[in-house]
Amino acid sequence: MGFIGYFLVLVVSSVVSCTKFDELFQSNWAPDHLLIEGDYANLTLDSLSGCGYESKKKYLFGEATVQIKLVEGDSAGIVTAFYMSSEGPNHDELDFEFLGNVSGELYLVQTNVYTNGTGNREQRHTLWFDPTADFHSYSLFWNRRSIVFLVDRIPIRVFENKEESGVGYPRSQAMGVRGSIWNADDWATQGGRIKTNWSDAPFVATFRDFEIKACELEPETEDAEAKCGPTRQFWWDKPSLRVLSRHKAHQLKWVRARHLVYDYCKDTARFIELPKECV
Ligand SMILES: *[C@@H]1O[C@H](CO)[C@@H](O)[C@H](O)[C@H]1NC(C)=O
Ligand SMILES: *[C@@H]1O[C@H](CO)[C@@H](O)[C@H](O)[C@H]1NC(C)=O
Ligand SMILES: *[C@@H]1O[C@H](CO)[C@@H](O)[C@H](O)[C@H]1NC(C)=O
Ligand SMILES: *[C@@H]1O[C@H](CO)[C@@H](O)[C@H](O)[C@H]1NC(C)=O
């Protein structure tokens, strides 16, 4: 066993991806609630605080993926987020927000897109698996044509560039990759009716296997458009990625039919006139 055991350890450890969490990220809120162990990060919420992290670099186009195992058991009132955002009042932002629930009831995944400081573009989905039982991957794909939200590589939402119709599109501000957990029991679960049960704290969501394949910029960049522009021919600018493949389009249709529970584009009670991109 001795020799073979040693050999297996060597093989296994060379396969495991070795990006250490703290090579890519740093805490941006309550460092004592962010527990890091190699490429794992536990985001902890208790009655004192939630916590968050952000990437050291900023990115303009590309893809960010993470695997998350969400808070188990009673997670009512708790929101865990994986998102990208630029800075300032006119910021751009792409969000995955996981809205917790009482034990045994479904989490909802809320996605949103902010352009130039304005969001209000929520969609909500249920998932086809229990996101607390195991790790699943969540990706934000972003090029000049569209933004795609993927769950285990299955697209759940596409936000297309409709600048010709006067709709803002995030394409000039570099964004950081971020994650957080916080108490949102004023709105998150069943419309805010169910509050966080602090006797179950601390609440822990585990993030791992970060993968950022994107055009990387230092925080105070330079000419972002030149560095990340279409002439550089990055993989996300490939013609084949201008629209979803037939297979992916089919998957999106399936998700929308089975798992979409709220779409701002259908919310005529909320918007007197539906946002332009919905028409
Ligand atoms: C992170 O959380 C998991 C699951 O709750 C636990 O098994 C692990 O020991 C935690 N790691 C750290 C560094 O806190
Ligand atoms: C972004 O919003 C600001 C006002 O908050 C406005 O002055 C500016 O023109 C907008 N930019 C774009 C690209 O729409
Ligand atoms: C929580 O469970 C209730 C009851 O099944 C459901 O209506 C709701 O959409 C679920 N999710 C959230 C975040 O409230
Ligand atoms: C809060 O959690 C505790 C321990 O799990 C449980 O005994 C109690 O009934 C819960 N309270 C509510 C309001 O659900």
UniProtKB/TrEMBL annotation:
Glycans are attached at N101. The active site is at E93 (nucleophile), E97 (proton donor). GO terms for cellular component: apoplast. It is found in: Secreted, Cell wall; Secreted, Extracellular space, Apoplast. The keyword Ribosomal protein does not apply. GO terms for biological process: cell wall biogenesis; cell wall organization; xyloglucan metabolic process. Keywords: Apoplast, Cell wall, Cell wall biogenesis/degradation, Disulfide bond, Glycoprotein, Glycosidase, Hydrolase, Secreted, Signal, Transferase. It is an enzyme of class 2 (transferase). Contains at least one intrachain disulfide bond essential for its enzymatic activity. InterPro entries: Beta-glucanase-like (IPR000757), Beta-glucanase/XTH (IPR044791), Beta_glucanase (IPR008264), ConA-like_dom_sf (IPR013320), GH16_AS (IPR008263), XET_C (IPR010713), XTH (IPR016455). Its EC number is 2.4.1.207. GO terms for molecular function: hydrolase activity, hydrolyzing O-glycosyl compounds; xyloglucan:xyloglucosyl transferase activity. Residues 1-207 form the GH16 domain. Its main location: secreted. Transmembrane segments: none annotated. Residues 1-18 form the signal peptide. It comes from the Eukaryota. Catalyzes xyloglucan endohydrolysis (XEH) and/or endotransglycosylation (XET). Cleaves and religates xyloglucan polymers, an essential constituent of the primary cell wall, and thereby participates in cell wall construction of growing tissues. Belongs to the glycosyl hydrolase 16 family. This is Xyloglucan endotransglucosylase/hydrolase.
